[in-house]
Specification:
This protein is an alpha+beta fold. The protein is 25% helix and 38% strand. The chain contains 1 helix and 8 strands, in the order αββββββββ. The chain has an 8-stranded antiparallel β-sheet with strand order 1-2-3-6-5-4-7-8, with no helix packed on it. A hairpin with a 2-residue loop joins β1 and β2.
């Protein structure tokens, strides 16, 4: 049996370090993947969370192509108007919300695709001097020729209401 050399000991230490690096790299990759999945599903749950808003019953649909849509809510009403009224895709749209006989501290409009998930399209509106709420958004182009949408006007005030307005767009 030969005497151990310092080089033999260094080779064993180097091999042991390489063996430990592989499990550490796998653990780092697994942790990064887990964090990415948690962020993805957490964001989706946050986007879909609407339980703190009350959706009134008896709301009827109207076509935004006709101009303004008015939803009666008991003694009050919410009116949504989109300009231009033709609702073109990939162009700036001005959203105007008028609130009658309801208290509002903040107003936002969430637009979501009904026949295809198009992601979150939330526009926080600013109150103008006339008391109306306005903001701008852009609707994306979808692979489907006809796209069904819901614009949900979210009113934060004494009550938290979410008033839905249905409309559609057609790709040229």
């Amino acid at each position: 049996m030969s005497a151990p050399t310092p080089f033999g000991r260094m080779a064993r230490v180097a091999r042991a370090g390489c063996m430990n690096a592989l499990p550490r790299q796998g653990l780092v990759i697994a942790l990064v993947l887990a964090a990415g999945l948690a962020a993805f599903f957490g964001t989706r749950a946050w986007q879909d969370h609407r339980s703190d808003f009350v959706v009134p019953t008896g709301v009827v649909g109207c076509q935004l192509f006709d101009g303004r849509c008015r939803q009666q809510l008991g003694q009050g009403a919410v009116v949504l108007e989109v300009d231009p009224a033709a609702i073109p895709l990939m162009q700036s749209l001005t959203l105007t919300v008028s609130i009658e006989e309801l208290a509002a501290d903040a107003v936002a409009v969430d637009i979501r695709g009904l026949n295809m998930d198009m992601g979150l399209n939330r526009t926080r509106l600013r109150q103008s001097d006339s008391g109306r709420w306005q903001g701008e958004t852009i609707l994306p182009i979808c692979s489907q020729r006809r796209m069904e949408w819901e614009a949900q006007v979210q009113i934060s005030g004494a009550e938290r209401l979410a008033v839905p307005f249905l409309f559609f767009t057609e790709r040229p």
